[in-house]
Amino acid sequence: MDRSIAPKSSAPRYALKAPERQVAFRREHIATERTNLLIKPHRNDQSDRAYKISDEEGSTVFTATGRKYNDRSCRELRDSSGLPLFDIHTKPLLSPLSWVVTLPGGKISEGTVAKATPSFPWYSDNLVFSFRNRASEDRKSVENKQLTLTVKKHSKALAFFDIVDRDRRIAELRESIVHNERLALRRTNRGRGHRPALDLIVSPGVDISLVTVIAVIVSDWFFGSS
């Protein structure tokens, strides 16, 4: 799909600040302070490092495999030691396109950690990301355990994606000006296989592995070839 024809969000951006309660897949990856990460894609579907996520010092924090690295046609998100954390499955046969996150080796039909789908209408540049908030396991209310974030696209040139929780921006993804050899400034470059490096900004109280999963999905969806 040519994503350049999709409408861009004209709504004002929320302030970047910590969520009212912690937001996480895994508590051990919750940021204690504002955290900057970089995600760099390497175009090789059979690579064990199709994506590399590093901190400000350049040290590897996470990696994600290519879709054809294993025999299950999914990406594996791993920590710096190589330990699998999550599998990211794409469901292209559904309308609209959607993604399912499972534990390592999990099936889409069982053990779902999170789901992501484009907002209505289907050609929107926004995503709805729903998951069970593991940081709220001690809460009695089911409503507090189930959480939905919105990933909102901004800007007509450089891509900005805000990860929004209720009325606040808790994380941000954006095309990196510093770490890209060339920028996809022209609309004709988008959706044609050029996947730029993305800067990730994560507020304290937010799981960096969760934001990384969203970043991988956004990179595949918005910048990947259709």
Automatic annotation (TrEMBL):
Residue ranges of the TM segments: 197-223
Stored Gene3D superfamilies: LURP1-related
Presence of the UniProt keyword Membrane in the record: yes
Coiled-coil regions listed: none
Top-level taxon of the source organism: Eukaryota
Keywords attached to this entry: Membrane, Transmembrane, Transmembrane helix
One Pfam family here: LOR
Listed InterPro entries: LOR, LOR_sf, Tubby-like_C
Similarity annotation: Belongs to the LOR family.
Name of the protein described by the UniProt record: Tubby C-terminal-like domain-containing protein
Lineage of source species: Eukaryota, Fungi, Dikarya, Ascomycota, Pezizomycotina
